Structure formats: C-alpha cells, structure tokens
Predict the structure.
Amino acid sequence: MKRVLKTFVALALAVLIAGPAWAQEEEQIVIDKAKLAVERMRIDPDYRKINELLLRSYGALIVPEMIKAGFILGGEGGEGVLLRRDAETGRWGYPAFYDFGAGSIGLQVGVSASEVIFLFMTKDGLELAMSDKMKFGADAGIAVANLGGGAEASTTTNLEADIYAFSKSQGAYAGVSFEGAAIVPDQDAAHRYYGTPYTARQIIYEEVARNPGADALRDALVKPIASN
C-alpha cells in the first residue's frame, strides 16, 4: 500500500512540474517562430525598408504564422507577440502575447500562410494596441499602411502612417487584408510564459516580465544586418 501511495505521489508531482513547462513550450514556439520571421524579412531585399523603420519605431507586433482559409466564408488568424522599443536606448523589451483574427465574406477557396510584422511608428498607434481589442480601420485617427513584398515594401517613402504592416504570403491567396481585423491581448499566454498573469500594459510599459527564452527575438530586432 505504501509503495502504491509513493508511486501516486511521484506521478502527481511529475504532472505538476511538467505541466507548466509543457504549457510554456507553446508560447516559446510562437516566440521562436517570430524570431525566424524577423530574421527572414530583415535580410530579404524586397523588405529592406523594414530595417530603416525598425530604428524609428515604438514597437512591433509579429505574427509569424497567420493562417487564412475558407470556402465562400473565410477567415484568418494567428498568434503573435508585441514588443516595445525604448526610443532613448534602442533596446527592445520583453513580449506580450496577442491573438489576431479577422473574418471575410466572398468567393474564396484555399489556404495560405503569412508572416506579418506590424511596426508602430507613433505612440498613439502603440497605445491603441494596449486596448482590450484593437480593430484595424475602426479608428479614423490611426493610419495603417499595408505593404506586401517587392518595390512597394522596399522603396516606399510614405512615412506618415501610424502603423506599417509588412506581410509575406504563400498559398492560395495573393495577400493579406487587415481591414476589420482585431488584435486581442492574451493574458493566459503571458501567465503561462512568465509565471504571473501580467497584463499587456504591465509587460510593455512597466517592464515587469522577464524570460530569457525571448532574448534571441529581442536581439533579432536590433542586430545589424549586412547591406545587400
């Protein structure tokens, strides 16, 4: 009987210990994919404008795997991370977690995957992301420029937008539409990753969160890129 009890206690402890670690792995995968998306886009000559804008941005929302699928009624969504850049030091903080989602109606068949990076060029744009639900196109005071690849994303000189969206798509759809799309903070993901249920505002502005697993992503946003 004692042996059975000891075995039960050992199994229970193993579940308690492994449970949070397993949950944290999901968030770490999103962060690792975000790092790869940043690195790929920064070295791509079709997106070299992003390097100039990163140096002047207030923050970046990275959705490394936005999936769009549908038959007649369609939708797109994905998980992402938002980081703030310190305008004085150029240092990037630790990420808050966000969910991205949008629906659409129309004749469409197929599936596509996109890497998307939103750059917040004004404090107002970044502040809007701190709301419980930011919806693109709903705030007339916030201008969003949606850039794909090629010459448009590489050479644009229109620097008046509050938010720039750089997207790379593969699959049945040619591009990504953000009109009506919403981003929502995911506090549960933050709790799993940092061990404390921090709000997005606490992570972004108060800088209370720390996890070395995100350091590679922070470095990827700031490290020098060789000229092409």
Summary: Helices lie at 2-43, 49-54, 123-129, 150-155, 187-194, 200-206, 215-222. The chain has one domain: 2-222. The two ends are 70 Å apart (CA to CA).
